[in-house]
Specification:
The protein is an alpha+beta fold. It contains one helix and six strands.
Amino acid sequence: MKTAEPSDPLLRGRFTDGYTDFSVRASSADAPDSFQVYVSNNHADLVLIVSGLISGHRHATWGDGWRAYTPEWKAWAEDTAFRVFSGVRVEPASKQPGSVRFCDG
């Protein structure tokens, strides 16, 4: 059973690949330069950190265990996480392995 995450003002939203639920969290409330993706309800299972948002030179750093995923899956995960971080609604499509859910607060 999943437990609800405590209220986190930096949480931007969630998405899934159909197997695992992921959460996207900004690095700060004002002008964040990075965001983190982690397995929902487990901040210790860090999937991805995307930095360089302000400079425009995005750089992805993958967590242990996640580096071995296929380049296609990693590209999908990074792009989906960026859309969630940016607040762009993403409807599941046949080419996307998951769905997106947003937090309102």
